[in-house]
Amino acid sequence: MSAAGSALTESASARKLRVVMAQLDFLVGDIPGNTDLIIQATREARERHGADVVVFPELALTGYPPEDLLLRPSLDLRIAEAMDRLQAEALEPAIVLGVPLRSGGLLYNAAVVIEGGEVRARYFKRFPPNYQVFDEMRYFAPGLETQVLDIRGVSVGITVCEDLWKDGPVEDAAAAGAKLILNLNASPYDIDKQARRKALLERKASENQVSIVYVNLVGGQDELVFDGGSMVYDHSGTLAVEVPQFRDGLFAVDFLHERHCQPVSQTLPDEPSLEENVYNALVTGVRDYVNKNRFRSVVLGLSGGIDSAVTLAVAVDALGKERVRAVMMPFRYTASISIEDAEAEARALGVQYDVFSIEPMYDSFMETLAGPFEGTTPDTTEENLQARLRGVLLMSLSNKFGSLVLTTGNKSEMAVGYSTLYGDMAGGFDALKDVPKTLVYRLAQYRNTLSPVIPERVITRPPSAELAPDQKDEDNLPGYDVLDEILNLYVERDFSAEAIVAEGFEPADVERVIRLVDINEYKRRQAPIGVRITERGFGKDRRYPITNGWKLGN
Fold first, then answer.
1. How do residues 118-141 score in pLDDT, each as one tens digit?
2. Is 206 annotated as a binding residue?
3. Is the peptide bond before 65 cis (omega within 30 degrees of 0)?
4. What is the domain count for the chain?
């Protein structure tokens, strides 16, 4: 665990309260390990930062989201044991942390304040969310009460995540006399999320004349990535402190003994570009999925194309080159420049690199299938066989060496089914699953600004699956600039076909793309999970029936 934060310029005598924001990465379900981390962080916050209060994220004790672990019969016992241990430690700073608590037979998403070995206060989240990736109403009852308490002479209100986004909790705490709101969060990343958080915090702080400490979780949990970005706003709605996104640590802020509990401002971090933020999200998601699931290494097929090139760079940045293996699996349709570029990428990143031709295996399969295929014309069956042979090779390496197979499909391909079941979809995690193709190119260009690892012609050449002679993606799909715009309107924004056409797109393109999206839901159900970076990722966000009679149209 790192300890970080800008230098605090005010003297100890001038401050009223020092709050340490514990922007940390917790493992879902590891209640004993999370308890250890909370105790360690609290001690470090006191010894290194002189903390008066340490604020942890939402449901820090269980990790977020715990999902159906909350239904396990032993949950209450495990939580009770952890709470007893935290109280027995008699930690000197007050700690505010998220924990599931049962009261009156109902389970609540709670925040507790522990000080001097005693639970001083409990707050039950008033608005458990039930949309997009959230399904808290499946587990938690809504709280009803406001919680305001005195901490070191400061009147402090407690809220949890979604409570900030609704009218009531902050307003009620301010009306009850709170000068400072501590808001515990497990808010997952998407491309525009931090800007929306800032606009909300600015409004809530200024309208209610309270300072707000917003503490967020960091790290990856299955397809979700939590970006941290913890912040402090003063009573006028001015951003005083912002913690860098995707960075764990302890971050201190002082509040002065003034009428509005004024935070001492710190130097704000530079605003990251969209490409930098997304790239960091992918690295975080891959790193935590691999490490938390205890995989020793990863393996991926390196084709010489843009998707596998970006995936390889992400994997190395997440795990280190020693834990990454790249495999080129050429066939008769593989262009020489693909082989050259794949090797250049592997050498530039320093990973183990192998070349295994699938030609002999393909010929053997075709010999076996010669009888039933007699009299038929080659079609996508033969193309898919190539992809499936590559999947078999990668999964064999996975089994033998305990490596996780990273697939390389992007969101555009996943949307229209431009992928092969049990072929290039065979694997355990897809870093680019929620990344549109046009953004993949931008990520490649961004990664090359850090160090040149992706050859320029990989970025500029027309994309191809190379499963047939002279094949190009755009032979079967609209250009990616057009495709991604149509997909954005249909998948992200729920536009109808007629509404998309009204935006200026060709009716034939719109009908073809929508039809491909709709008929390929069965493929997406069988795809590996991957990092979510948008508000409508395939999986928990967008759940459509495979079998349905919904007609194309308005």
1. 999 999 999 999 988 889 999 999
2. no
3. yes
4. 2
